[in-house]
Amino acid sequence: KNEVEQSPQNLTAQEGEFITINCSYSVGISALHWLQQHPGGGIVSLFMLSSGKKKHGRLIATINIQEKHSSLHITASHPRDSAVYICAVIQGAQKLVFGQGTRLTINP
Amino acid sequence: SAVISQKPSRDICQRGTSLTIQCQVDSQVTMMFWYRQQPGQSLTLIATANQGSEATYESGFVIDKFPISRPNLTFSTLTVSNLSPEDSSIYLCSTGPNYGYTFGSGTRLTVV
What we know:
The complex is a heterodimer of chains A (108) and B (112).
Chain A (H helix, E strand, L loop, with lengths): L3 E4 L2 E5 L4 E7 L5 E7 L5 E7 L2 E5 L2 E6 L4 E6 L8 E9 L3 E4 L3 E6 L1
Parallel strand pairs in A: 2-11
Antiparallel strand pairs in A: 1-3, 3-8, 4-5, 4-9, 6-7, 7-8, 9-10, 9-11
Chain B lengths: L3 E4 L2 E4 L5 E7 L5 E7 L5 E8 L5 E2 L10 E5 L2 E6 L8 E7 L11 E5 L1
Parallel strand pairs in B: 2-10
Antiparallel strand pairs in B: 1-3, 3-8, 4-5, 4-9, 5-6, 7-8, 9-10
């Protein structure tokens, strides 16, 4: 069993829909990242959080440390949101452990 | 957070040759990480590179296959040696926690 599990693995939705991607982890962490990877391969960090909730534009990330669970929400989804979203946890001082990613496709 | 310039963005290489990937950071960073992403898979850490010391390799990765240089606090290279088709992957570098884990744009390697 992977230390970081994401669901769903693939998600297709229509433009405007509310999107939720889930991440569960089984190890102790100091913080959790949500990353976005576009088809070219480059990765952008969306959020780093260790408690509560963060919001940036249409993106919202929450984390429940007791439940070892985090969610990434996208409101009013748009085709440009189509990408792979990766959850990564920070173990110890520095090492990132990655989930397998969720491939999101938003159709116009 | 830091900004990383990674080169090349993609390359097609012959079996048995080597490819060197460069990452230039716009800030001085203590730690840099190198990752491999095989097709359809998530990222796997290859090694951690600290300036002035040997890189620390993860289980399954060896220095002879993936030599890393870290000559100063703003630059690192990863060489993938003796290429085989199984090395076809995306390779990425990143900074460490003090710079928000910024990632390079990735190098897509295809071995033919």
